[in-house]
Queue: 3 jobs
Job 1
Amino acid sequence: EVRLVESGGGLVQPGGSLRLSCAASGFSFMAFGMKWGRQAPGKAIEWVSSISRNGATSYSDSVKGRFTISRDNFRNTVDLEMTSLKIEDTAVYYCSLDSGDWSTRGQGTQVTVSI
C-alpha cells in the first residue's frame, strides 16, 4: 500500500523559508518520479514541482527560482525547499507520485505565510 507522509509546514513571515519533507513507503520509490502540489482554500490542487526518478526537476512559473525539489532514494524522501515565501504561497502542500493524479497523496502539511 502506498503511503505518503508530508511534514515541515508552519507559519512564516513573507520572505521567510521552510523545508517540507515527504516520507514514502509501500512502493519502489526509486522507480518513480515524484511531485509536490498545493491547495489553497476553495481551489483545486495546483502542481508546484516534479522530480524524475533520475533527478530531473521542473517547476511551475509561480515558484521557479524560489523553490527547490530534491529526493533521497536511500531514505525514500522527497523534499521541497521553499525560500522567499509570499502570502500567495499559503496552502496545504501535498506530495504524490508524478505518474498519477492527486488521489494518492498524504494528509498534507499546512504552510501559512502571513505578516
Note: The two ends are 40 Å apart (CA to CA).
Job 2
Amino acid sequence: VQLVQSGAELRNPGASVKVSCKASGYTFTSYYIDWVRQAPGQGLEWMGRIDPEDGETQYAPKFQGRVTFSADTSTSTAYVELSSLRSEDTAVYYCGSSQDEHDYWGQGTQVTVSS
C-alpha cells in the first residue's frame, strides 16, 4: 500500500490550495481516506474523511465550509482543497487510510501561507 502526495505549496493569504493523494496497492474504493494536518509545534489535527466509493464526506466542525474533499476513482486519487487560506493554515497535510489492523499514511505535503 502506498499513498503518494503532491509537492509543497506556497500561497498568499486568501488563496486556495489543492493537495492530492494517489493511492496504490489496494482497492481504492474499499477504505476511507482521512486527512489530518500538523501545524508547527502543534499536534495532529483531524480534518475529516471521504469514502471514495460513494464520495460521502465527513468534516471536522472547524473546517466545515472551508475544506472540500474529493476523490477520483479513475486515478485512485483523493484531494483536499482548502480555501480562504490564512497564516494559521501553514502546516504539513497528510492523507491516511486505516485498513483493518494497519494504518497507512502519505509522506505529507507542506503548505505555507505567507504574503
Note: The first strand starts at residue 2 and ends at 5.
Job 3
Amino acid sequence: QLQLVESGGGLVQPGGSLRLSCAVSGSPFGYYVIGWFRQGPGKEREGVSCISSHDQRTVYADSVKDRFTISRDNARNTVYLQMNSLKPEDTAVYYCNLHWFYNDYWGQGTQVTVSS
C-alpha cells in the first residue's frame, strides 16, 4: 500500500518562499504521475503541478507558472514543490497526489498560509 506524507508548510509573508516535500513509502512501478493539489478557504481543490515518472514531463497551473517548481529525488522517493514569490491567494492546504493504475493516492495535506 502506497503512503504519501507531506511536510514543509507554514506561515510566510507575501513574496517569501517555501519548499514542500512529499515522501512516498512503497515503490510504484511502471508509469505514474505524482504532483500537488491545493484547496483554499471556500474553494474547490485544484491541481497545482505534476511530474510524470518516465519522461519527467512537468505541468503547472497558470496561476503558479514561473513561481513554483516541481522536482523529484528518486533516491529518496520524494517529490518537492519549491514555491517562490508567494501571494496571499496561494494560501491553501496542499495535498500530494499519486495517480497510478487508475487509482489516486493522497497525503494528509500541509497548510500554507501567506500573510503579513
Note: The CA atoms of residues 95 and 109 lie 4 Å apart.
